[in-house]
């Protein structure tokens, strides 16, 4: 028996990177999984089937677009109708855009606030009634070191991540007596497609080479001079799902190689 056997986890943005690692770690502990995110249908299907065969659980994919409140509610409803409950909700979908503020495209601001912040409000709103009814729940939001400190050229991302840290604390207080915890995890730089994709724009914004961006911008922020791994982030989320973490709520847990200690 895994520690999540019989439970269901919805993980937004789980077709890639950190989200996929959360989904696989929770499936390994016996949870049925609602995958969510974009990508080629054949790639998503491969990950879905991989989870089912590797961990002997069930997995479905919700194509919900995290900019669309009705689709987010439908994703939670899909978990409840397919598996009977949504016990663990991981808000993780996120995008990045790097630009000086005066050139920052308005539609990129709107998209980042919608996907990185508002989607968590909509999914929590939809999942909490079932969690309250069953008297147990775990809500985990992927924030970022950028929920605690800022970097230039990331106005929308830093705003959304500071916002999700506040949402986490508020929800934790509201649910404190219902055996539902709400925490956020704040990674430093994790080597995923999201980080890889922002390198060209940072090269442009700061007039740097790729190596300079990796060593002087990304790893410069991290005293350990190493990237965090997706498996390390997933292991922390798994800990938050267990009984040992029942008194951890409203916390913002850094996993950032010392970045925010500076
Ligand atoms: P990623 O690009 O590998 O994955 C992002 C996921 O979000 C993908 O599954 C993608 O399909 C999904 N997504 C994007 N837009 C969506 C939309 N409109 N609707 C539904 N799904 C959507 O990125 P990642 O690095 O794994 O990032 C995951 C989370 O971790 C993000 O919230 C990010 O801000 C946060 N984070 C990442 C790092 C890092 O260094 N990689 C550091 C701190 C925080």
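-> sequence recovered:
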């Amino acid at each position: 028996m895994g520690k999540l056997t019989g439970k269901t986890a919805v993980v937004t943005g789980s077709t890639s990177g950190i989200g996929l690692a959360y989904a696989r770690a929770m499936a390994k502990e016996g949870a049925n999984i609602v995958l969510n995110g974009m990508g080629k249908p054949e790639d998503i299907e491969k990950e879905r089937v991989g989870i089912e065969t590797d961990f002997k659980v069930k997995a479905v994919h919700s194509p919900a677009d995290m900019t669309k409140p009705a689709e987010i509610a439908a994703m939670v409803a899909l978990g409840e109708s397919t598996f009977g409950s949504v016990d663990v909700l991981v808000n993780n979908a996120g995008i990045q855009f790097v630009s000086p503020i005066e050139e920052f495209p308005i539609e990129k601001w709107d998209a980042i606030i919608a996907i990185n912040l508002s989607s968590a409000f909509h999914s929590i709103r939809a999942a909490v009634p079932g969690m309250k009814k069953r008297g147990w729940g775990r809500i985990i939001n992927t924030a970022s070191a950028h929920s605690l400190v800022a970097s230039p050229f990331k106005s929308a991302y830093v705003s959304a991540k500071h916002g999700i840290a506040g949402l986490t604390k508020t929800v934790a207080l509201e649910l404190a007596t219902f055996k539902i915890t709400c925490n956020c995890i704040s990674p430093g730089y994790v080597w995923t497609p999201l980080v890889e994709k922002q390198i060209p724009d940072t090269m442009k914004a700061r007039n740097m080479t790729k190596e300079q961006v990796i060593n002087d911008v990304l790893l410069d922020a991290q005293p350990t001079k190493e990237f965090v791994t997706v498996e390390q982030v997933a292991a922390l989320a798994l800990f938050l799902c267990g009984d040992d973490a029942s008194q951890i709520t409203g916390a913002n847990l850094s996993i950032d190689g010392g970045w925010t200690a500076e």
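The mean pLDDT is 97.
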